[in-house]
Amino acid sequence: MATKTIIIIGNGMVGNKFCEKLLEKSSDFKLIIFGEEPYRAYDRVHLSDYISEKPLDELYMSSEDWYSSKNVTLHLNDPITYVDTRQKKIESGRGIILSYDYLIFATGSSAFVPNIPGIEKNGVFVYRTIEDLDLIKAYAGSAKKGTVIGGGLLGLEAAKALMDLGIPETSVIEFAPRLMPRQIDHAASTVLQQKLQNLGLETLLNKATSSIEGEGKVHALHFTDGTTLDTDILVISAGIRPRDELALKSGIVVGPRGGILVDKYMQTSEPDIFAIGECALFEDMIYGLVAPGYEMAEVAATTICQGNKSFKSFDMSTKLKLIGVDVASFGDPFIEEPYARTIVFEDKNKGIYKRLNISPDGKHLLGGMLIGEANSYNMLLQTVNNRLVLPENPEDMIFGERSASGQSASTGIAALPDDALICSCEGITKAQICHAVTEQNCENADAVKKCTKAGSGCGGCVPMVKDLVNITLKQQGKYVRNVICEHFQLSRQELYDLVKIHELKTYDEILNSLGKGDGCETCKPLVSSLLASTWNEMILQGGNDTAQDSNDRFLANIQKGGTYSVVPRIPGGEIRPDKLIVIGEVAQKYGLYTKITGGQRIDMFGAHLNDLPAIWGELIEAGFESGHAYGKALRTVKSCVGSTWCRFGLHDSVSFAIRIEERYRGIRAPHKFKSAVSGCIRECAEAQSKDFGIIATEKGWNLYVCGNGGSKPQHALLLASDIDSDTCIRYLDRFLMFYIRTADPLMRTATWLNKMEGGIDYLRNVVVNDSLGMGQQWEEEMEKLILVYTCEWKAAIEDPNIRKRFAHFVNAPDERDTTVQFEEMRGQKKAMDWNIPSITS
């Protein structure tokens, strides 16, 4: 039988995937690909990484020799210009004429460009291809104000690109009354809008652009409501249009609003011509995500190979990290009563919004959305897709476990059916992943990815793949190593020990000695936290500053409107009148809003970046030091007045709180931690809601550990009773070092205990009974950390290289950011809720 020829028009992700799927099934075909771009297939999902200097080589879907090794002919920079469906021939722009047995349209889509007067001006771009991004990068160098038309997924990605290019003022224009109108509701949009504003991105809703103004190049946008927005560069991301023009010219049927009409086998009106991806119209739907495109590629390849597989309406659930903010929607996110009951959780302080839509009988999850924190997305999606029966308290699925039973969040994965689709991009089921572990010796997520390709698309399923691998290994009785990431094949605990053994002091030293590659957003902050916990050195010295969290880099909390807050340490809440006067004088001099915090400190808000070193200097001169309100470190040790003043007090809780706070100040840990000391069982300091709390008894102190407040409150549990002060501190040294050594990144002590096998009894055995024989070593390690403590504010203002970082503008270090605006509130100032200085009526 003669080898049949398949010609693929389009060399994007879906066209490339079709080649892979077909080659997996048969080698009896000759594949010829025509692409109009000069690049081989690349990952458009992570196109924004190219803006942040990710090499193009890392975006390619296949290596250069893959095509020759698979006997695939690739024509780049050569679009097909003519298709003769009767003679089954094509002609390319370079004059190549070929015959085909099957023809695949994988032409994708183009950016929809609205017909706005002035759209042709220089400085107006679309955001679709590598070439588009190269043009944007070249033009953006002189831009100070950037604008994106379109507040959907791609629009927000484009806005992130402009911010990554260093454009200080970036705005998003959206015609609809909310952001991402196809994925999230109004309440979720409001939370997302506030999160983006805090990150420096302005959003303008209900805006229709009437014209683009400027002499030859864009200078401003005029809106139909009469307002104007100045801009130096404009990116259009207002939707997509299927690339169906060649099919239409060739007589192939297209939809009335565009798109190549296909049946469930991806066949067009010509049975030997298929359409897949964003150019295909199936049941009046254009699918704009990569996962359904990959499924279409699988269906078309199966049909050509005489198999039996059809395309069905595809789940459009999605999870993305937009400008550092988690955004996810799943199932039917908008269904309302009487067809559903809705559970909503909103935390405006942290910028978190979660919505679950429950069936009227309360048994099944129908859909929902997550903004700001989406760790539960994968399990929620599986619960919808597999019609799993909901637990007695469905809200636990977004609020977390409410007991300290030690159950892992992954326990629900084991109950998923074998055919549960884990990786929708590649169509990989739970059974396939488990088979890779049990039969093909894949013992980590990276090995499973290489074997099955699960997680190689958008990457959203990777956490669930890791959990499945671990569960399957445990079921086989194998030891599970919780490695950090692909760059460090070590657990955090193993890395901690090796850093101490080899006395490594910087991220680069650790990566060169113990890791590989260039690192990532997972390992960089983890290693930085680990270094701070191990050596307790000033975090902005030694080349470790770039990997620190944002607040740590500025030694202050970044607040609304581009302002910063200053929180000096006030151990135990005790402060002399003269120091209280200094705080008042500093706040008055620099125009700061002042508030007494829940942890018995005074917070000063509204500081300009330039003023931070001067403010710190005046506070340090008065005897204050950094309160580490910005760090993953000890925050406060709250206290009541105890026996000093209170008639019920049994012991001097203030003095003991001061002793503890001054002992553990500045020590970094996997998460922030808080404490309190109460002078009697009336518990006025609320010690049992802290990471460790101490309550006076007639015989000494009771020590409680692993509690926390917040959205998931948990009472601390009794670790030791009726102990003296020195014994209490000795136990605390052991407890904190055990936590620092073994907890995962960003894990609170309560969660750490919940996941600890044996729970509080095991922890008591380790800390109090010294069952591991580590007590003395941990006490000595704590002493070393205490001895090297230094106030980070003082170190920053005394080091010229660090001090010069505290400026808004490098070329004008004394100039303030004029976009920071305030308004009056109860005799003080506050950051304005909305700041769009360039909008004029």
Automatic annotation (TrEMBL):
Domain NADH-rubredoxin oxidoreductase C-terminal: 317-386
CC cofactor: FAD; siroheme; [4Fe-4S] cluster; [2Fe-2S] cluster
UniProt keywords, alphabetically: 2Fe-2S, 4Fe-4S, FAD, Flavoprotein, Heme, Iron, Iron-sulfur, Metal-binding, Nitrate assimilation, Oxidoreductase
GO biological process, one term: nitrate assimilation
Annotated ranges, domain FAD/NAD(P)-binding: 5-298
Record-linked CDD domains: NirB_Fer2_BFD-like_1, NirB_Fer2_BFD-like_2
Binding-site residues for [4Fe-4S] cluster, renumbered to this chain: 640, 646, 680, 684
Secreted as UniProt keyword: no
Pathway the protein acts in: Nitrogen metabolism; nitrate reduction (assimilation)
Gene3D superfamilies linked: 3.30.390.30, BFD-like [2Fe-2S]-binding domain, FAD/NAD(P)-binding domain, Sulfite Reductase Hemoprotein, domain 1
UniProt family annotation: Belongs to the nitrite and sulfite reductase 4Fe-4S domain family.
The protein, known as: Nitrite reductase large subunit
Organism: Sphingobacterium alkalisoli
UniProt lineage: Bacteria, Pseudomonadati, Bacteroidota, Sphingobacteriia, Sphingobacteriales
